[in-house]
């Protein structure tokens, strides 16, 4: 699992489930919260998606606007949590 | 209740509590805790700074900042001076904050570091406290001002705050409320909830939303504690349930959507010590979810409050046993707070039992008027809500009579979104409809465009002009908007089209 794969998977999920297939102009820096792409409900389904696709459980303390503001931020969080879990194992 | 509590200035609640229980915690916020003595002192000092900056009785003080002790101190400071505070959604873009500041002709803006004034060069200059702007008064300096200890004695008909709601013409509407209106509600809610100094109130709603009046002022009236939930957590179900546990919340007040989310995804029903009073308002609570809450929290008082911002809470219903055969939401109940409520049928007659009509409200909690418009006076406020008379004086909510919709309890005038969309250079005609209700409510824009527009592009356009909860969720490009026989946009057909699309996709877990 690398950052590019995570980015692509997130882009795919967001385009399909949150943008009704219209992913034109979606970038790693698109403000997900500000544009109302990710709201609370979407956050719940995103967390489930992250869990199922990458086997990464985002701790409650990390579920914050800072970490969900862009694909880039979320992807960095996933990589970090994944890394911590692997090192701990 | 002591005669002090009947004082005319809403600011006296904190002043009295600071005298009686100075060391009790008044506010627990992400940026720290304040005892009543500290809140009183900081409010007196900020009032001194506002006064030195020229703020006088009746002047408007705009608050554009995150939920924090600072925001509460600023409200208290404004009230003490007899000034009118105007809370602005901290997530709103600068363009909308500016519209509100200009509309209410604010004398002063209190904001957070990291923000700059949203005003433009051509706007009247105002004093800025706490921002990064050159010339702004630093918040710390303001708190070092000599305290202004005596609050202004006031005519209770003076305005206390203005809450801006979505406006159909594209400009937000300022609902102006007096000290009298606020206190009529606070006294009633204090008694109805049997609030005590041991209570910990949650503050889930943002400060520009009228649910916050209960959280703050009923807590202050009872010398209790209010625990502020930061904006970012307002819909994070597990953190919210953890918040209740950690802060020992005893009185919870929110829109039903938040409660449902906490039940579904946050483990609310597994709480060992749930709040002893759970109050909800702002939208109907789907009965299947309320039934689960009732069954699981058998010893918790559940109360359904009703009232648009213009009237604050004007009817209420305490949920006891729910009839197993019930399929519709519980009633909004009977008039309260000394208000009168009645329904008027389409023919203009007073609705009788079994009939439905528009709910009318008159009484002490109603607004003074919309800012910049003639006052309401003795007239009743027509709520725009259609209700059915269940039994004498008891009402059940049926729906709206106009284009106002609610998404998670937040009022949205479709016209304001459409006006913002039409500012997009590529969009010629637009119509916005809401699909779904409650948690699943979504805003779908049908547009006629000169060039192809992406959903992200339109969302970005909205995000510069509208609060986040009014940003559209989906764009559908059409050659022409369907019209009804008399030439109006056929919104019913558009809603059907959008709903059908939804079913075909059947994408999500939003049930």
Automatic annotation (TrEMBL), chain A:
Q: Which InterPro entries match?
A: ACP-like_sf, PP-bd_ACP
A matching Pfam family: PP-binding
- Domain (Carrier): residue spans on this chain: 4-82
Q: What is this protein called?
A: Aminoacyl carrier protein 1
Q: Which organism is it from?
A: Enhygromyxa salina
TrEMBL record, chain B:
Q: Where is the AMP-dependent synthetase/ligase domain?
A: 16-371
Q: Tell me which SUPFAM superfamilies the record gives.
A: Acetyl-CoA synthetase-like
Record InterPro entries: AA_adenyl_dom (IPR010071), AMP-bd_C (IPR025110), AMP-bd_C_sf (IPR045851), AMP-binding_CS (IPR020845), AMP-dep_synth/lig_dom (IPR000873), ANL_N_sf (IPR042099)
Output a single Gene Ontology CC term carried by this record: cytoplasm
Give the superkingdom in one word: Bacteria
Per the UniProt entry, what are the Gene Ontology biological process annotations, in alphabetical order?
amino acid activation for nonribosomal peptide biosynthetic process; secondary metabolite biosynthetic process
AMP-binding enzyme C-terminal domain residues are 416-488
Instruction: Write the protein's name.
Output: Tyrocidine synthase 3
Organism for this UniProt entry: Enhygromyxa salina
Organism phylogeny: Bacteria, Pseudomonadati, Myxococcota, Polyangia, Nannocystales
